[in-house]
């Protein structure tokens, strides 16, 4: 039982590290967003160069998605492998995790897309150039941290509940334990 818990620690550390990497990429992207001075106008057409925010946003999205998948796999595998019921708190935390994940992916994906190159006449949407507002990537970073915190808390709650359940079952089978 102890070995199983110790085996999950590196996996949870990877999830935590990916979450931090994603949040750090969001903050770095915020510092590199395009400014009004970068916007070039040619009559009614506009041009915005690709910023570093584009690549940083993609890195943040990838890290976030991988962390979310791994974190949820831990919870699901624990429940299936040990035939444990998922505790209500763990389920609630997973729901919060998925809601904040969905919002952060939409926000981060939109901001990242706007940070890409917007050539003359093509723009981001209907041929117009759009700038990412200040604070969008920072807001995404906060949502990423909420996502990772709730995912990890759900996994830890499930691990704890599974361990307690196994100890109780072992105690019922072997009263000397």
From TrEMBL:
<dbReference type="GO" id="GO:0012505">
    <property type="term" value="C:endomembrane system"/>
</dbReference>
<dbReference type="InterPro" id="IPR009606">
    <property type="entry name" value="DEAL/Modifying_wall_lignin1/2"/>
</dbReference>
<dbReference type="Pfam" id="PF06749">
    <property type="entry name" value="DUF1218"/>
</dbReference>
<feature type="transmembrane region" description="Helical">
    <location>
        <begin position="58"/>
        <end position="80"/>
    </location>
</feature>
<keyword id="KW-0472">Membrane</keyword>
<keyword id="KW-1133">Transmembrane helix</keyword>
<feature type="signal peptide">
    <location>
        <begin position="1"/>
        <end position="23"/>
    </location>
</feature>
<dbReference type="InterPro" id="IPR052222">
    <property type="entry name" value="DESIGUAL"/>
</dbReference>
<keyword id="KW-0812">Transmembrane</keyword>
<protein>
    <submittedName>
        <fullName>Uncharacterized protein</fullName>
    </submittedName>
</protein>
<comment type="similarity">
    <text>Belongs to the DESIGUAL family.</text>
</comment>
<keyword id="KW-0732">Signal</keyword>
<feature type="transmembrane region" description="Helical">
    <location>
        <begin position="92"/>
        <end position="115"/>
    </location>
</feature>
<feature type="transmembrane region" description="Helical">
    <location>
        <begin position="135"/>
        <end position="156"/>
    </location>
</feature>
């Amino acid at each position: 039982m102890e070995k199983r818990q110790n085996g999950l620690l590196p996996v949870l550390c990877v999830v935590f590290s990916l979450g931090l990497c994603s949040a750090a990429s969001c903050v770095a992207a915020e510092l590199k967003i395009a400014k009004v001075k970068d916007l070039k106008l040619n009559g009614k057409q506009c041009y915005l160069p690709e910023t570093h925010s584009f690549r940083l946003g993609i890195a943040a999205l990838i890290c976030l998605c991988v962390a979310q998948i791994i974190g949820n796999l831990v919870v699901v595998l624990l429940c299936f492998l040990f035939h444990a019921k998922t505790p209500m708190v763990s389920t609630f935390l997973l729901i919060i995790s998925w809601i904040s994940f969905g919002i952060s992916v939409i926000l981060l994906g939109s901001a990242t897309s706007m940070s890409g190159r917007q050539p003359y006449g093509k723009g981001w949407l209907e041929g117009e150039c759009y700038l990412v507002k200040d604070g969008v990537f920072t807001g995404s970073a906060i949502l990423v941290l909420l996502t990772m915190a709730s995912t990890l808390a759900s996994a830890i709650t499930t691990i704890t509940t599974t361990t307690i359940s196994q100890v109780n079952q072992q105690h019922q089978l072997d009263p000397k334990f």
